[in-house]
């Protein structure tokens, strides 16, 4: 296709970091001083893509040949490639943001920031007041109270059926954990869900005497628990609202590309359509890769699942497409349901596997592996990492495959030996580093014990092993903020909640951390041919910063102002709906 040169635009900048190691600033004369306009750093874009990066001088051969506009709006700013968060759940998290909030940290909502609740007693009080106000539904029975955000570790203990019955034994109470790996229910809600002590479903929690304790754990059981509240959680138009809300939140964090890592949890076509509508409506200024959640994909399409993905790939474009396939093979870090090797949990808990029995994971991955589809496999605990590496090794042995880019998602608790084995097998990691700051010290004496907690997110080991890794937020299915720059800050400093440096040998450099939110994140999504760095030919996605991340104190990386993003050459601050949705997100 012929290039459309009509919109050739040159953005000048105080500094450009291309993340192309060969030309870290593009063509930049060392003696270019302030006020030297010809020597000003600049990036030229046309037709949605990068034409040249360097200085006005260096790109003169292009500029002489084509009419162009020089745009100085970022002349005092610092340009990086658009940030990539390779693991989020925007539609789902935007949906939860519409429910009553009982989480521990302040949370953005459509009506402004909602304050966190410090502990379980505060949550129980909140539930009591919601139960007293709920009223009756059309059937004359009490309307269920639906809440989201509970965090058993920081809010001091799990909820359970008896505790919730003490708040109300007539109003159905439904409490989804912040990372929605657990739903807690009281007796009236358990009855609505339609299970009893004789029900045999994976993930139903029980008291020692065998009675249901009101816990619904992991995707299978959580899905069951959603049924009676689906009308409340999934209100008409909820999906588009959620996508709009999260489009504003992610844009403000400087993100230009992300992936939905649980596509199909509610509805494959519905989720796709909401993103399509938001993108076409100008309210979602990002590129989105929809990664199908395998159990739902298999259930929805059976033998046609690969054909369905191929059809969506054909239907997609450079803003919305499908990518890879996603597996979940253990529980969550903050909910303390991941799987640990010896010596296990402090109090003897065992954690939980995903809804696919581990013995079947190989067979379930095989059709995707042989079809050349990239596998993203969630493993939080070290025992799960071992299982995942065993499966990867078997796949490689039985069906050799090059450049497979198998990615372990989260990679929270691991060992240096696992990093070396992952690298040897050609695997990669997409890591949640926020936990070092927000969770690690909490779990020293709650769940995982001091050694593993301190060494959460072993990025230094991955780097020494030669494994490629990215940083992600998993927003907001874990109790952490959404900010690639903050993730980078934590990866570089490894300061815990009280400022102590945790496992200092696992720190990485600023450059490596910035790669992990740009070009290395693109690589693990098989998009580094077109995204992740500022290079001629790539899509013109930029993040515009108020300060230079290579110059500031690394402990302040997360505080750098995100001024704007540029998507396909167009500043997103000027897109229709950009500022309106930012206001809706409470920013
Ligand atoms: Zn996730």
Report on this structure.
The structure is a single chain. With 587 residues, the chain is of the alpha/beta class. Strands 8-9-10-11-13-12 form a six-stranded mixed sheet. Strand 19 (407-410), helix 14 and strand 20 form a beta-alpha-beta unit. The radius of gyration is 24 Å and the shape is globular. Residues 577-587 have low confidence and may be disordered. The chain binds zinc ion (ZN).
Secondary-structure blueprint of this entry?
Blueprint lengths: L8 E5 L1 E2 L24 E6 L2 E7 L4 H6 L3 E3 L6 E4 L1 E6 L1 H7 L3 E2 L18 H14 L11 E6 L10 H7 L5 E5 L4 E4 L1 H7 L10 E3 L5 E6 H9 L3 H4 L4 H15 L2 E9 L4 H13 L6 E6 L1 H8 L3 H11 L4 E3 L2 E4 L29 H13 L4 E5 L2 H17 L8 E4 L5 H9 L3 E4 L2 H5 L11 H5 L4 H7 L3 E3 L12 H10 L16 H7 L2 H6 L17 E4 L16 E6 L2 E2 L6 H7 L3
Parallel strand pairs: 1-5, 2-6, 7-14, 8-9, 9-10, 14-15, 15-16, 17-18, 18-19, 19-20, 20-21
Antiparallel strand pairs: 1-3, 3-4, 6-22, 10-11, 11-13, 12-13, 22-23, 23-24
Bound molecules: zinc ion.
Provide key terms for this protein.
587 residues; alpha/beta; six-stranded mixed sheet; globular; binds zinc ion
N-to-C span? 41 Å
Helical fraction equals 25-40%
Low-confidence stretches: 577-587
Structural class from helices and strands? alpha/beta
Largest sheet features: 6 strands, mixed
**Sheet with most strands: strand arrangement:** 8-9-10-11-13-12
Number of helices: 21
Strand content: 15-25%
Shape: globular
Q: Ligands in the structure?
A: zinc ion
Query: What's the β-strand tally?
Result: 24
Oligomer category: single chain
Q: Over the alpha carbons, how many angstroms does the gyration radius reach?
A: 24 Å
Averaged pLDDT: 93
